Structures are given as structure tokens and as C-alpha cells.
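Take a minute with the sequence and C-alpha cells given here and flag any C-alpha cell that looks odd. Thanks in advance.
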Amino acid sequence: MTDQFGRIIDYMRVSVTDRCNLRCEYCMPNGVPLAGHSDILRYEEMLRVCEAAVSLGIVKFKVTGGEPLVRKGCAGFIAGLKALPSVEQVTLTTNGLLLGAYLDELCAAGIDGINISLNTLRDDEYGRLTGFSGNAAQTVLKTLKDCVERGLKLKINAVLLAKTFDGLPDIAMLARDMPVDVRFIELMPLGEGAGMEGVPIRTAIERLRGFWPDLYPDDEKRGNGPAVYYASSGLNGRIGFIGALSCVFCGKCNRARLTATGVLKPCLCYADGVNLNELLRNGCTDGELREAMRGCIEKKPRTHCFSDPVNMTELKKMNQIGG
């Protein structure tokens, strides 16, 4: 379907939980309130929403959280989503700590790709940033290598933070050593991230050109999102950049978001949305559900306002929105 500005909306992010096994400083440190279990959509309700979305022309789905794998049955939900007629792609975003235990189930479900959030390869720094002790970074790295061996399409997501900037080349080297894409994401001024220091994309590119002088923009389409990818003769994969602040890409935005509590959001920046939870539990018909979703998506705003935070109306944390 198209929105009021003629953009084709064919991609939806589905958050299955607001809970997470990490407490990342920029997302949900200790003290962030969580939704009650009864407020979270049941999987069958989520599948009903996704089926309605497919009827509207949304055929690509990203399963997110919180950390989606902390919710029991996530792989089964992905299998159900993959089985919906006309669905073209289902991918997963995870921090990777639980991924190893679910790889067999996810592969059996037909997962089309996995994004792993990994901001540092240093265990001590990982612990300070996420509140998780132990050899977490190396655990994720091992699982990452297992995914590559299985032939899974893999992307690594790293938020551009001033406090981890010195380790930026270490993360980028993953695209040198393996056929994976490493994407660096500008810190969004949402929730806890609003009070932290980020790094602009241009600074990251300048740093990485010290390692790959021939780093150049690559026009090949490598996903459903707004990342701009760079290639080099010294890379197996690609290095991508997602810059909501440096590069306003709203003119090509193709997505909607479903929060774990059932709110359909047309834009990350604003609180506007429609509460599908209420509709579902008040006995709406499939037609009523579909029209509520259509009306919400059609009103998708022209652009975000991250550069002018005074106009932002979304006050929730990233784990509550679904990222």
C-alpha cells in the first residue's frame, strides 16, 4: 500500500517483547518500566495483525524486541509468520547471546536473515555498556561464526557511541574476515540515547578510510532499510551506515512498526499510532482491523524531527517502541 505521500509501505517491524537480557546504557538501563504480561500481544494476535498487513501489501517482516529470543516460542512465531501466504521475507534482530541455542529452530523455520547487535568485541567494555558480565562479546562472536558456517545472511549492527569509538575498526574488521555486512548506526535522540554522546557518520567514514582507502559507496541493494553501503577490495562483506541525523532518508521510508503491546506506529519519532490491542480484544472483524491499519499507515508523516527534538512527541524508551 502507499501512504499519503506516495511511499510504498511493504515492510513492518514486529516487536514480540519489551524485555531484554541486557541493560544497554542507550536503550533500557535498570529502572526502565516494563509492560505487564497481559498487555503484550499473544502470538496468535500478532499473526492476525501480520496477516492483515500482508493483505495491505506488507510482505517483509523484521522480528525485534527488546530481545526477541527471551520470549518463549519466538522461533515458532517466526515459522508461523513465514507460513503466511505472500510473505516474502522474515528476518530477526537479536543481541546474539541466546541465538546459539535457537539456531536449529530458526533455520528450520526458514529465517531469511539475522541482524546481530554488537557494539564492541571487548568483553570488559561490553560489560560496562550492557551490564552483562562474563565473556559475552566472545560468546556472540562464536555464534556469529556459526551463523556464517550455516550460510545465513548476516548483518552486524553497532551504534556509533563516543565511548566505544576507539574500537570501531575492530567491529569493521568482521566485514573483512567474513562475508557479513557491518552497519554503523547513528545514536538516535530517543529515550536514554538522548543524553549520550554519539558520533556522526562522516567521522566514522574518515576513520575507516585509514584502513581501507578505497572505501566507496556501493549502490547494490542489500536490505530493506535505509543503510548506505560501502565496498572495498579489502572486504568480504560491506560496511553500511544508517544516519537518521546526518542523512534524512524519510523520503524512501517503507516501514511501519508494531510494538509488543499492539500499537501500530507509522514513525519512530512521534507518539502517533493506533492501538490494535484494544481492537483485537474488543472483537473487531478482520475488515475493521485492516481498515484501522490502513488509516494509520496512510497518515505516516513526511519526515522525522530528530534534528528539532522539541517537536518530538515519542517519549517511550527504545525497548518499548521496538527499535
The mean pLDDT is 90. The chain has eleven helices and twelve strands. The first helix runs from residue 43 to 55. Residues 11-155+250-321 form a domain with the TIM Barrel fold (CATH 3.20.20.70).
